[in-house]
Amino acid sequence: MTGLSERKKQILANVVEIYVKTGEPVGSKGLISASGLNCSSATVRNEMNDLDRMGYLVQPHTSAGRIPSEKGYRYYVDNLMPHREIDEFTRRLIDAGISPAAGDPEKLVNTARELLADITKCAAVSTAPVGSLNVIRKIELVPVGTHTAMMVLLTSNGILKSRLCRIESELNARILEQFYSICERFFIGKPSGEISPAEIQTIAASVDYDYFALLPLLGALSDLAVSTNDSKLILGGEANLLSRMDYGERAVSLLRFLNSREPISEVIRSSKDDIDVKIGSENMFRQLEDSSVVVARYKVRGDDSGSISVIGPTRMDYPLVISSMKYITDLLGRMITSALEE
Amino acid sequence: MTGLSERKKQILANVVEIYVKTGEPVGSKGLISASGLNCSSATVRNEMNDLDRMGYLVQPHTSAGRIPSEKGYRYYVDNLMPHREIDEFTRRLIDAGISPAAGDPEKLVNTARELLADITKCAAVSTAPVGSLNVIRKIELVPVGTHTAMMVLLTSNGILKSRLCRIESELNARILEQFYSICERFFIGKPSGEISPAEIQTIAASVDYDYFALLPLLGALSDLAVSTNDSKLILGGEANLLSRMDYGERAVSLLRFLNSREPISEVIRSSKDDIDVKIGSENMFRQLEDSSVVVARYKVRGDDSGSISVIGPTRMDYPLVISSMKYITDLLGRMITSALEE
DNA sequence: GATTAGCACTCGGGCTAATTGAGTGCTAAA
DNA sequence: TTTAGCACTCAATTAGCCCGAGTGCTAATC
């Protein structure tokens, strides 16, 4: 396994790049004219034949040009891909969208995802910032009527959730006091992932008075806690996939697949690195056999916090996707971190 | 203009229903076998020919069956459509999803929209509850650090918005006090639609001290106020449109159209009745020429508050769509109203 | 030994012609 | 007014054909 000759690498890289750009299988002649290789088409043909036999290229049919195989893309991404700088204009766009002034971390992630979908012309999914250390930091219950109150919950990750609550009995000072004392005792400082409805029941039952008034409040609290922690996938840019003609009919089944969320969430969970490229059938889901998924994690205070992923045809512009994802997740992490400073 | 003969009505209704079900142009033979009309195909042919000349039916080409024209659909919706009851199973599904326990009004509307998209197998858009009387009811600013606070805003429509704020100077009691006094003086009880960034500037400038501390707070407040009022369109169920093969390639352009929001928002605004059916080119947008839009408004405390719309091919199951929309918007209105009670 | 020119060969895409069949309109009889 | 019958139309399918981009192979050349 001595690796590919220099010229083979050059040819493979060119095939990938031309094919990504044009969508047509690339032949020997087309390749030399587009790449400035100074050798004849016959030589290229021989080399391509080798690459074909080695599994880096495939022919859609006998008398057509070559297309990169998954192995070819993989080799390209791992070894051949140029390091591309993100261009000035889109950089400004990103910088403008992702700034601490734009709101809470969740919003930042959302705009980041939208930007990414636009830039890459692919679909993108994001998960809200959720760290292992997502601890409940503050709970506030503000009465707004005799039977209603707004409840607000803030976690250490800066996630803020609010909802209205109604209780049957009157919302008096004693109930508020009890509520806060329960919060102080059981919830503040606790990881929001550890709060379960069952536990809420137990806690409510341990209260001396006002069980029936507190129960709905604690129920709402549990809802909020769960919602800060279920790193719900948000999907956007699906329309981009349709415009890319790579998928014809298959677009529908892909969209269905993406909309069912769980599997794609598994794909994301299974990715390990800061930035992880899964090409075609590396994804373990048949519905993704023509697609690549690039997962990038952003870090808040140095810890993995959430991720943004791009989903597109295997024939995607990997340098563009990867460079913009790197830039965006990096910026995103820094911005969220700074937004969380005291 | 004496209207259609009874048999013509029957035939038109059958053509619509069969075509909606099968997607194929319906011919004279197919019609009698599927509808139990006791006359011969030749008679049906004559009648269809009449309906064709009157503009209720069209032929895709000379030797094919008939398809309802827009006029045909319109007549069907206005005069022929049976009143269909929503079926037991989906009714339970809806009742389970839309209950005051499910959270604030905005969430209710969202689940309503999702349910509707599922039931009708179409795309659906919703607008959050926003009435003319959307007045700021309560503002709360809870410090969570020396420089950060969470701000919560509640409107009379039950819309609750929250965000984190950061200020440069220290967040002390005096600033809080000033903030609340400004709120009391300028914001509480005011329609959220009337708050503009320019006005915020003016108010901030009129403050004696702490201008620089208050400005970001008031800015955040203005953001929140605006967000309670911009009845942002939320779109879902796009994938449903793709599965319906009525649109082939055109699906892409339709999706793009829906994603650009403004025009569809205009369509909704232009609808007048509680429930309004716009068929094909009645919609004034070329991109909707093959689509129908059904807009239903829900009422809170008896006033128009927001809307849910279904967008699908002109060839949609109008009785199903309309009956489920009626049921859902009715329930939704009642639930939101009751959630707002003191 | 590597490279290149030349050539026979392959096979998908695009074009045209022929066939099929569902569905029509019209006419004439019931 | 309804119906049976018939000639006609036209989209969709199928078959046949050619074209040409692109290949692999061979033999000559560097």
Helices, strands, pairings?
The structure is a homodimer of 342-residue chains.
Chain A: H1 6-22, H2 28-35, H3 41-54, E1 57-58, E2 67-68, H4 70-80, H5 88-97, H6 105-120, E3 123-127, E4 136-143, E5 148-155, E6 160-166, H7 173-187, H8 197-205, H9 211-229, E7 233-236, H10 238-243, H11 250-259, H12 262-269, E8 275-279, E9 291-300, E10 303-313, H13 318-340
Antiparallel strand pairs in A: 1-2, 3-7, 3-10, 4-5, 5-6, 8-9, 9-10
Chain A binds a DNA duplex (30 and 30 nucleotides) through helix 2 and helix 3.
Structure, explained:
The structure is a homodimer of 342-residue chains. Chain A folds into three domains: 6-80, Winged helix-like DNA-binding domain superfamily/Winged helix DNA-binding domain (Arc Repressor Mutant, subunit A), CATH 1.10.10; 90-128 and 231-341, GAF domain (Beta-Lactamase, 2-Layer Sandwich), CATH 3.30.450.40; 136-228, Heat-inducible transcription repressor hrca homolog, domain 3 (Enolase-like, domain 1, 2-Layer Sandwich), CATH 3.30.390.60. Helices cover 49% and strands 18% of the residues of chain A. Chain A is built from 13 helices and ten strands. A five-stranded antiparallel sheet of chain A has the order 7-3-10-9-8, sandwiched between helices. Chain A has a three-stranded antiparallel sheet with strand order 4-5-6, covered by helices on one side. Chain A has a two-stranded antiparallel sheet with strand order 1-2. The mean pLDDT of chain A is 89. The structure holds a DNA duplex (30 and 30 nucleotides).
